[in-house]
Write a structure and sequence with these properties.
It is a single chain. 36% of the residues lie in helices and 16% in strands. By secondary structure, the protein is α/β, with parallel strands linked by helices. Strand 1, helix 2 and strand 2 form a beta-alpha-beta unit. Helix 8 runs parallel beside helix 9.
Length: 368
Amino acid sequence: MKDRSAIFGGVWRMLALAACWFLGLGLGGCTESPERVAAVQPTDEPVRLVLYNWEEYLGRDTLDRFRRATGIEVELRTYEDDEEMVGALLSGSLEADLIILSESAASELVWGRVLAPLNRELLPNLRHVDPGIMAKLQIMGEDYKAPYLEGYTGVVVNTRHVDRSPDSWSVLWEPSLAGRVAMLNNPFEVIGAASLLLGYPLNPEPEHLDEVRDALLEQRPLLAGYLHDTEILNKMASGELWAAQSYSSDALMAMEENPDLAFGFPQEGCAAWVDVFVVPVLARNADAAHAFINFVHTPEIMAEIAGELWSATPNLAAREFIDPEVLESPVVHPPQSVRDRCTYFDDFGSSESVSSQMKLWAELLSGM
């Protein structure tokens, strides 16, 4: 549940032209057994998988269990937002075998030709994944992205201090909460929330941006800041913040610490998201990367991760093993009436539209 700051689409497309010389790497073979996943071809040196992920976005025992099952050592490196990761990938300076990042960021990296297509033969456990999600993630019939966890973006409030239900983005524009409100440090989430509040799509059309800008400039004096998701989680749990834009899984973890908190899906609409695994085209250990993806999608393993992180999973077989309290949570798995009003960011639009949104974001940050 980390900062899903989508990357500056138009800028990405320009940078991607410089990355087109990258060549794809071949992927070796492996075999499956239930928890002992694909075996990596033996070498004289111990196999090491370099995994980039957001902080605390795996199960407590995931890496140890993978090492015991496969003999593969994982070097976990963390990062704060997608912009940092994409810049490093496009520059060719990143040593990584596997990355967990937002689906929208991964799509842009596919067009930048810095990701390798996945070998489905090495990922038999993807048979457990919702076919609709797998189809959504395909690009030109290729699997560049394997799903990890999914969720929603909405509003979390401290009911001790807020007497309104968190079922509208307008709560985050409430003058009485000045200094106790925060928005995500994510331009598209912030702009999308304002656009939805005004009755426009999650990805606003260029002609709507002036109204969106006015709404966000009106809100800015009320904010404690545009904060990373973990900071929002911690400050909501401690009571320092009273209302915030939040990812559903983060809100649920904060709610475990502070029973006064409540999360809501705005009536105006909200963002749905999927985080994914990707393998860089220059990965040194693509086989090990595939082995890890396949391991995580072992139903029992995925159930442990989703349960610990209070997240939804597109792995349908895992749901049999998930803690019923998590599985039955209306925040983790909201009813169809809620899902119907949640949309994915998908394409952010033209380069002109993305550029305009980035100018607005820079203006918002300059006043904080």
